[in-house]
Amino acid sequence: MSKIEIKNFNLYYTNFHALKNININIAEKKVTAIIGPSGCGKSTLLRSINRINDTIEGVHTSGEINISGENIYDEEIDVGILRRNVGMVFQRPNPFPLSIYENVAFGLKVNRIYSDRNIINETVEKSLKAVLLWDYAKDKLHKSALGLTLEQQQRLCIARVIAVAPNIILLDEPCSSLDPVATQKIEGLMIQLNNKYTIVIVTHNMQQAARISHNTAFMLLGKLIEFDKTEKIFTNPLIKETEDYVSGRFG
Amino acid sequence: MKKIINTIIETIIFICGILSIVFVVLIFGFLFKEGFAFFKDYNVIKFIMGQFWYPDSNPALFGILPIVIGSILVTFGACLIVVPIGIMDALYISEIAPKGIRDVLKSSVELMAAIPSVVIGFVGMVTLVPFVKNLFDIPTGLTAFSGSITLAFMAMPTIVTISEDAIRSVPWQYKEGALALGATKWQTIRRIVLKTARPGIIAAVMLGIGRVVGETMAVMMITGNSAHIPNSIFEPVRTMTATIAAEMGETVRGDMHYKALFAIGLVLFVITFIVNFIADLFLGKNKNK
Ligand SMILES: Nc1ncnc2c1ncn2[C@@H]1O[C@H](COP(=O)(O)OP(=O)(O)O)[C@@H](O)[C@H]1O
Ligand SMILES: [Mg+2]
After folding, report:
1. What is the pTM of this model?
2. Yes or no, beta carbons of A110 and B192 under 8 Å apart
3. Percent of chain B having pLDDT more than 90?
């Protein structure tokens, strides 16, 4: 069953046609990787799924993105509710300049999910445990999140998303500012999370895509070139550009 | 040859740098000397708590309480007006306004900063003063209230431009992170943008207040210059700066009145020093982040 259905989707930055007629069905509770050379539109596609592109002046779209059968570009969609359901982790860790606790509680507060302090505290604890940050942070909950290492900050950003109980988590090159050890830890975390959430991850790191994803989409110049099981994309792709890219002949 | 020119230029720059320090020290020295000389002949408590400023009576009375209250009242009133408007203006310019409006607003705010205070005072005198008189049906429009409004105008550019800088320097990633968690634009502004920019905004307010406290021309033209303790903001008041400016010409160099004006200068200096110090504290905090 597919969770996210992207149908004839186009996106323009003012006059620049950045996504060209994308069609893709993303399966539920699987990890889907989006790969492709820099500037091919991976981030743009990912950012279309929670409509965070709406905040950029001059962006307009056509086509549909259906999540659980509902077109999120429909006029009646409440983007607040959409974004709560579709969490996003960014390329550079971007914790708020608040305490660790306030970072995780932020989504709960702005969405008015809980007002009971005890439940908020529990949710903060649960979310930090889910990203394996609790043991480290439990005595430092009210210290600034900016004092954490980059890896811990990225974990915190994932915890902050998990706290509002999304169904889908979008990650845009979440390890690109981390060292290999930290990368490995974050990857481990994603593998742990994947039976609970539908995960879409953009990565320029093909080993990473191969290691953690079930399905892989390859993009080039705003177009979706090929989409299949990760194994197939990396061993026996149908299309020549895909093969050239995954075998490292360009990129 | 090159070396000599270099040395000469370096020396000139060095002297210029030293000169600016020397001037500041000289000004302070002079202010302190004349100001403290006054307290040799006049009790400090009588000076600060005295309710009457009668420099020409016999014996002369130099109580600055009315003019201190006048200054505080006018300044405080101006802050009440300018702080909320200034911050909201800065927010509107940096976060909400579409590009066209933003550019127009920004340049008009900058233009406002370029208007000399005497011009603002004059325009206030011929427009605002009669307006206030008629609106509240009071004997004169030359009141603390009119002074506050005029000063609010003058502090506006400082507060708007510096707050706007602070708000604009909040990283886009913070806002994106908040929006991506389902926060509305307003929640993002209130919980993230304002909180992050707060040290800069406080510094902006302090610098704005500094400008208001030290302002002379406009308040002299608009507040009515009556050195008595007012019962409300709709009465004429006189400020410390206006007192110094208005009376310095009447004094004889070295007499009590002359020294008393320096003593007022000293009090003003202490007040602006504190305000600037607080502003610096917050600005420094902002930069260390
Ligand atoms: N805000 C923007 N305004 C205009 N063009 C943009 C903007 N963001 C991205 N683009 C353009 O859209 C294309 C795709 O960008 P992006 O999705 O960031 O690529 P990727 O993530 O695959 O590196 C690029 O050519 C980029 O220059
Ligand atoms: Mg990208």
Report:
1. 0.81
2. no
3. 43
